[in-house]
Amino acid sequence: MPPPQQRPPWRLSEGNRRVFDVLLAGGLFVLGVGGHLVVGDAPGMLFTAVQVAPLVVRRSHPSLVFVLVAGASAAQALVHDLPVAGQVAFPIATYSVARWSPRWHGVGALLVGCVGALVASWSWIGGFGAPEITWDAVVPYVVTITAIVTTAWALGTAAQTRERYVAGLVERAEQAERMAAREIELAAQDERARIAREMHDVVAHGLSVMVVQADGARYAAEKDPELAVETLATIADTGRGALTEMRRLLGLLRSGDTGVRPQPGLVDLPHLVEEARAVGMSLDADLPDPVPDVPEGVGLAAYRIVQEALTNVRKHAGPGAAVRLRVQVGSDIEVEVVDDGRGASSYDDGRGHGLVGMRERAALHGGTVSAGPATGGGFAVSARLPL
Predict the structure, then answer these.
(1) Where are the domains of the chain?
(2) What CATH number does the domain located at 265-387 have?
(3) Where does the chain cross the membrane (predicted)?
């Protein structure tokens, strides 16, 4: 049973935040100014209006709003020695500057609030008509006001820290998503390159066999029609096999079951040898019997290396070349294909796709491939694939 999906935290939209700030400032303005109007406190009305009005833009200009509110509160302490309803704007402004301004702005607002708590307490006690201002009377007010300002600052700082943390998580998630997309792209490129190598091996091998058989059938058609018919049948079988391999490769590009046979491996090497001998190649093969179980990827690489090496013999070694094939399986797979043909000059100095594909296949499994002139003439391909 899948876990229940968690709802995202409820948040105000950008437009609703502006509406909230307007309603907050408007509500405090109406209550504060109305209250002072009822008791006939004109200075209280004025200072309340001045302190509350800047809260409308407390999100977009928090530091400026705090400076205006703190300045109005300082002016009030000099002119009006009684608390006013607009005094509630100070902790709101402190929260705002700690929430949306740089960290040092919030620390500065906290220090200003602590100093303001002492000044306001001293002024208010005198305004309350106390005959003497003592520290015993001032301290409770200072502690209360400082606690309110500190709480507002702490809440704003915590909210800013949480927002930065969430922003960091979002950034890391986006970075991880970009890296995943890049890895998918690189994997797709590797897969395209692998399929290109597979297609090269299939097409080159199949067509080389068909070309040799077609040339033989053309010459045999005049003297031995039955041999020509057999050769044409071999061409058809080779073509069908190549088409089957191509369908399998194209099936890799589709999802789901393709309905084609598995990829070839060591067990298919005898068929490859028989196919090469059928087109007239003099091939001496030393293959493992019975064929041991090896990983599919390594078996496919060994098969393709042998297939490409035999294809190159047909294409470059010249007529009448004899080939020796040896495949041994122990702690690793050793492949050796040596011919006595025309030598390395006909292999285009190893720059063809076939030799490059061999090396790439071997390197994919931590193996190596060496290809070059053989001792006494001809060309040799040796590969080692660790198991």
Answers:
(1) 14-175, 265-387
(2) 3.30.565.10
(3) 20-39, 64-83, 104-125, 137-155
